[in-house]
Amino acid sequence: MNKNVFTLKDIKVEEVFPSSYGKDIVDWGLQAIQAPAAWKITKGKGIKVGILDTGIDLNHPDLKDNIKAYQDFTKSPYGVLDRQGHGSHVAGIIAGVENGKGIIGVAPQAELYIAKVLGDNGSGSFESIINGLHWAIQQGVDIISMSLGCEIEPPEEMHQAIKMAKNAGIILVAATGNENHYVDWPGMYDETIAVSAMNEKHERAYFSNYGIKNEIMAPGVNILSTYKDGGYARLSGTSMATPIISGSIALYLSFLKAKGLPKPTLEELHQKLLTSCDDLATPGKDIMTGDGLIDLVKLLA
User: Fold this and answer.
1) Which residue out of 53, 62, 82, 142 is catalytically annotated?
2) What is the distance of C-alpha 159 from the center of its chain?
3) Which of the residues 27, 76, 82, 86 is marked catalytic?
């Protein structure tokens, strides 16, 4: 299989902060989706989120309590340890711990299952992604979050792994990409929910990919979260919007679970997300902003 096909290109590190930074900061992105209102109902308890990325900072005070399992598929000399920073940032957006330190994630009580499928240089192979998908399925996760992209269609083996995850009842969420063109894979697959990025003005981020497969939008510019070496950082990219949607889905699944209601199928969840968005452009779905910005109050109504 071809090596180094999936990449994190065009992810922008806006600012880095030390480990002493913040006290459960609720970033602008979480305010925009009305996370504080949602936390009065649920904080994601009992939901397993698989993250396919560059690994994680295992000892980060805002992450370690929510990390339940991890595996390295890149043969890195550092193992699952995140030397790039991207995976730790994504993990914090989804489930940064509510502990009076640093930041808080969208679903601060969700459980994290980490598959390191992208190497320390931010790139990875088809093989590592496929292996990570199989591992996440074996872990019994509820959601798989993939803030990664490939401009060429992957081999059928990857699509089969994606289908296997969907058939296991897993919700797959993927970034549209940051090249300002058509949606990347795996976001292009019908079995995934493709997420694009908006800025603080509630406009499509200039870099965010678009097209008919662009399904939903979330904050993705200047997003504050956990970072490597115990620190914090602001990053921009559809990679940041994707975990906001993954965390939002974790809240919804936790809400249903607490009420004893069945887990929705991908199709049912698609419909629920569609009716839980605020339009950002023309009414209804469009190629630039999808169904619009996720609204957690509507999602949990």
Assistant:
1) 53
2) 19
3) 86
Q: Residue 96: what pLDDT?
A: 98
> Could you give the maximum distance between any two Cα atoms of the chain, in Å?
50
Query: In 3D, which of 276, 261, 263 has the Cα closest to residue 215?
Result: 276
Instruction: Report how far residue 231's alpha carbon sits from residue 63's, in angstroms, rounded to the nearest whole number.
Output: 11
Q: Is the pTM of this model over 0.90?
A: yes
Q: Which of 239, 246, 254, 276 is catalytic?
A: 239
Identify whether 86 is a catalytic site residue: yes
CATH code for the domain in which residue 161 is found: 3.40.50.200
Instruction: For the chain, list residues with pLDDT below 70.
Output: 1-4, 9-10, 284, 290
The pLDDT of residue 215 = 81
Residue 7: inside a domain, yes or no?
no
Q: Reply yes or no: is the peptide bond before residue 264 cis, omega within 30 of 0.
A: no
Pick from 53, 59, 115: nearest CA to 84:
53
pLDDT digits (tens, 9 = 90+) for 41-80: 999 999 999 999 999 999 999 999 999 999 999 999 999 9
* Catalytic residue status for 239: yes
| 10 is a catalytic site residue | no
Which position has the token pair 């913040």? 22
pLDDT of residue 272: 93
| Run of H or E residues at 51 | strand 48-53
- Domain containing 88 equals 12-299
- Say if 192 falls within a structural domain: yes
Exposure class string for 104-133: b at 16+ Cβ within 10 A, else e: bbbbbbbbbbbbbbbbbebbbbbbbbbbbb
SS3 state of residue 252: helix
